[in-house]
Design a protein that fits this description.
Largest sheet: 5 strands, mixed
CATH superfamily of the largest domain: CRAL-TRIO lipid binding domain
Shape: globular
Strand content: 5-15%
CATH topology of the largest domain: Phosphatidylinositol Transfer Protein Sec14p
Number of strands: 5
CATH class of the largest domain: Alpha Beta
Number of helices: 14
Order of helices and strands: HHHHHHEEHEHEHHEHHHH
Distance between the termini: 32 Å
Length: 328
């Protein structure tokens, strides 16, 4: 840990937790490293350091959303990724994981500088996290449908694909449900022969190729499959342009906000203390009590975020179209 600033890591850890559960967030890294604790700690510290680096700022990006960039005319490539209406989060798969649909024929690497495409990807992943329901439905993964209808080599963006492969493996482990590559034309085999070598074996094991609505319906209920893919969903993905009010969080900071912040800091410290005592305890009965304390504090931190969210996060696309209701 000597290569990291512990104070910064603590701040990054606290800020990246939203409506999810702390222990489950940590467990993702443990599972990704096959229960080898040293490797899991190293992986998580490296990921937290990435979150607070100068090059990437996932937590501030998701809190800012897309409105400010759209309204000020900045980050035009980032905004273009939304306005071309190539991707959307809608419905869920048969395991109740939210689904992210991506229409590859609408993607062109020349539309956006790589860093802004990366920002679009990270913001979208973070929005997907807000759709997860770990407490109420035990849903902690998101599935992806890559619709390759009409795909050509002009749509192949190797740098963006490599980034996604790396970011899911290093910073969002165990968050993917199934990955459906749908209606891939023969030309995609050229792309696939390159990108398959970039994929973590665990991620690769989640990939399924589907050709028609019947095959797709093995993973997704037809009512959530768009009609242009042979399903029953007749709605079209539409980018609802943000208004001036969307460039700021819905609620202004007031006394209740500062009360929630104070409670969050106190609960976060209690969680750390309970974890240390749980680890150090040699009495099974006492250890179990600390474990129950940890579980309760997990829920308290998640519930605290739900109350903080309107004070700290600007309304994004899925808030504006009514798709997203933040809960746990």
């Amino acid at each position: 840990m000597s290569q990291y600033k512990v104070r910064d890591l603590h701040g990054g850890f606290n800020s990246c937790l939203r409506n999810d559960l702390v222990d489950n967030f940590i467990l993702r890294f443990v599972r990704a490293r096959k229960w080898k604790s040293d490797a899991a700690v190293q992986m998580m510290l490296k990921s937290l350091n990435w979150r607070i680096s100068k090059d990437f700022s996932p937590d501030s990006w998701v809190l800012e959303g897309d409105a400010k960039s759209f309204l000020t005319g900045t980050n035009k490539g980032f905004v273009k990724n939304f306005t071309c209406e190539k991707a959307f989060i809608k419905g869920h798969d048969v395991n109740r994981n939210p689904i992210y649909f991506f229409q590859a024929r609408k993607h062109f690497g020349s539309d956006s500088p790589l860093i802004e495409t990366q920002r679009f990807s990270v913001v979208t992943i973070e929005w997907c996290r807000l759709f997860l329901r770990e407490v109420t439905d035990s849903v902690d993964q998101c599935s992806i449908v890559f619709d390759l209808t009409g795909f050509s080599l002009k749509n192949a963006d190797y740098a963006a694909i490599k980034f996604l492969a790396d970011v899911f493996e290093a910073h969002y482990p165990e968050t993917l449900g199934v990955i459906l590559i749908h209606n891939a034309p023969w030309i995609f085999s050229t792309v696939w022969n390159i990108i398959k070598n970039w994929l973590d074996p665990v991620v690769a094991s989640k990939i399924h190729f589907t050709k028609d609505a019947k095959e797709l319906s093995k993973f997704v209920d037809p009512k959530f499959i768009p009609d242009y893919l042979g399903g029953q969903d007749h709605t079209e993905p539409v980018y609802i342009e943000p208004e001036e009010s969307d460039a700021l969080p819905p609620r202004r900071k007031d006394a209740y906000y500062y009360k929630l912040k104070k409670e969050r800091d106190a609960t976060y410290l209690k969680f750390i203390e309970a974890t240390i005592k749980w680890i150090e305890s040699t009495n099974p009965a006492i250890s179990d009590q600390y474990l129950q304390d940890k579980i309760r504090l997990n829920y308290e931190l998640s519930n605290n975020y739900l109350k903080l969210d309107p004070y700290i996060r600007c309304r994004g696309l899925y808030d504006r179209d009514g798709t997203l209701t933040v809960s746990n």
